């Protein structure tokens, strides 16, 4: 297939869906990856009504077996992958508990999705990304994972301590740096995206940005030109502090 192929995890709703819609509007074929295949199928129906070429892909990012099955399907069907957006994420922290009071179950479940899921998916698809003329990997992070923002009392985010979530995003930022370094001599570019404070199931209705606005950064990083940044952290066009 000559058309560019994008796989977006958690693409059945929220920022992931809007990322799929915006990339699809640019003529990219979308693999709507979701744990619930019925939710993925519903999202694909909506995308097709918007004129987007897409198909659902059942993908539980906490299951290595399921990831391997999905990667095998993409390889046999398309032979490559041009864009990978590691968008799926969870926020499970109890907001009335301090870091030492969060349960070990919350820590493990958060890292299983927000870090290890992204790592496992990337590792499974990196060979297909190397088959692309200009592979792009976008790791959806958060400014709440910024060590600079977490340690600067003058930062507007200084008091937003959501332990397991924040630290999992610090880890995905570090993964971005290491992965970009590994792939520095290839056409693949790897960057982290801060979507902003977006109205989603994760953040609630009081957030100022819409999912459409929250997808802008992921879309921009997925569409980077060959001279674009690599191993960086962005919100829209602004570099963010690690």
TrEMBL record:
It comes from the Bacteria. The keyword Transferase does not apply. GO terms for molecular function: oxidoreductase activity, acting on the CH-OH group of donors, NAD or NADP as acceptor. The keyword Zinc does not apply. Pfam families: adh_short. InterPro entries: CBR1-like, NAD(P)-bd_dom_sf, Sc_DH/Rdtase_CS, SDR_fam. PROSITE patterns: ADH_SHORT. Keywords: NADP, Oxidoreductase. PANTHER family: CARBONYL REDUCTASE 1-RELATED, CHAIN DEHYDROGENASE FAMILY PROTEIN, PUTATIVE (AFU_ORTHOLOGUE AFUA_3G15350)-RELATED. Belongs to the short-chain dehydrogenases/reductases (SDR) family. This is Short-chain dehydrogenase. It comes from Erwinia typographi.
């Amino acid at each position: 297939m000559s058309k560019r192929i994008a796989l977006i995890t958690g693409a059945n709703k929220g920022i992931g869906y809007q990322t799929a819609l915006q990339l699809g509007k640019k003529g990219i074929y979308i693999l709507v990856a979701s744990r619930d295949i019925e939710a993925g199928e519903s999202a694909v129906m909506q995308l097709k009504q918007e004129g987007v070429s897409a198909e659902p892909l059942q993908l539980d990012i906490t299951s290595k077996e399921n990831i391997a099955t999905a990667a095998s399907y993409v390889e046999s069907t398309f032979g490559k992958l041009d864009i990978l957006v590691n968008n799926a994420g969870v926020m499970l922290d109890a907001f009335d508990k301090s870091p030492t009071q969060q349960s070990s179950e919350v820590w493990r479940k958060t890292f299983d999705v927000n870090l290890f899921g992204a790592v496992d998916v990337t590792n499974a698809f990196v060979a297909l990304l190397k088959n692309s003329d200009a592979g792009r990997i976008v790791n959806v992070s958060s400014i709440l994972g910024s060590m600079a923002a977490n340690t600067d009392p003058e930062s507007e985010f200084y008091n937003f301590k959501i332990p397991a979530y924040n630290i999992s995003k610090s880890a995905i930022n570090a993964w971005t740096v290491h992965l970009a370094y590994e792939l520095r001599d290839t056409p693949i570019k790897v960057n982290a995206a801060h979507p902003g404070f977006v109205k989603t199931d994760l953040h609630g209705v009081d957030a100022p940005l819409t999912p459409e606005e929250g997808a802008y950064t992921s879309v921009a990083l997925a569409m980077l030109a060959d001279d674009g940044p690599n191993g960086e952290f962005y919100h829209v066009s602004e570099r963010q502090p690690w």
